[in-house]
Amino acid sequence: MAVAAPSERNFFAFLGLSRKLNIDAADLEQRYRALSRQVHPDYFYNAPAAERRASLERSSYLNDAYRTLKNAATRIEYLLKLEGAIATGNDGAQSATAAPPAGLLEEVFALNEELDEIRELRAAGAPADQWKGRLEKARAPIEAKRVNHETQLQELSRKWDALLDRNRSDDERRRVLEELRERFLERNYINNLLAGIERELSS
Asked: Which of 31, 58, 88, 103 has minimal CB crowding within 10 Å?
């Protein structure tokens, strides 16, 4: 079976998959290994230079496709880029110092106030168990928010797949993509907040 050039396809199509967000891991692995046997540079050792270059390109593209699609978060991010819901050059990451998404304003405001007080405690020489206990308490609602967002992303992923199965209208799919985009960007912001708390705990 001939394998199309990467420039002619996307990661889903390259691996023979539809643009669904719930993927069977074993099936993905099987597809990856089957294609690896077709495009791996070792099989083109004695081929002309042009074929060797094409093999390297396809093999690299295949590895990128597999790494992206085997992870739920990067799979959502890639679909959003593919569908034009987020800019291709945007990796989906957000700085915790950037303007927070509207849905997180209350949590971010409360956390920043708490972190300021905790830093003052540390500067005043308060015992570590005192301010670390407050950090752990501050982390709890943010972690709960993260878990809630993961659940929402799973539900939206199932909704997206169902729309594809039923071949629903572009308007319906666009609405789900917009919801996915909002939850995905909020999720990244939440992860940055949690990473900031971890840095405070380890400092």
From this structure: 88
CA distance 90 to 69: 17
135 three-class SS: helix
3-class DSSP state of 69:
helix
Q: Could you give the CA distance from residue 171 to residue 187 in angstroms, rounded to a whole number?
A: 24
Q: Which sign does the torsion angle of CA 142, 148, 151, 152 carry?
A: negative
pLDDT surpassing 60 at residue 1 = no
In terms of phi and psi (left: phi > 0; alpha: psi -120 to 50; beta: otherwise), the region of 57 is alpha
Distance CA(7)–CA(11), nearest Å, equals 10
Predicted pLDDT of residue 57: 85
What does the block give as tokens for 47? 């081929």
Please state which of the ranges 4-8, 14-18, 32-36 shows the lowest mean pLDDT: 4-8
DSSP H stretches of helix in the chain: 11-14, 25-39, 49-69, 72-82, 105-123, 128-165, 170-202
Q: String of b and e for 9-33 (b: at least 16 CB within 10 Å)?
A: eebbebbebebbbebeeeebeebbe
What local confidence, expressed as pLDDT, does residue 201 receive?
85
Model pTM? Answer: 0.82
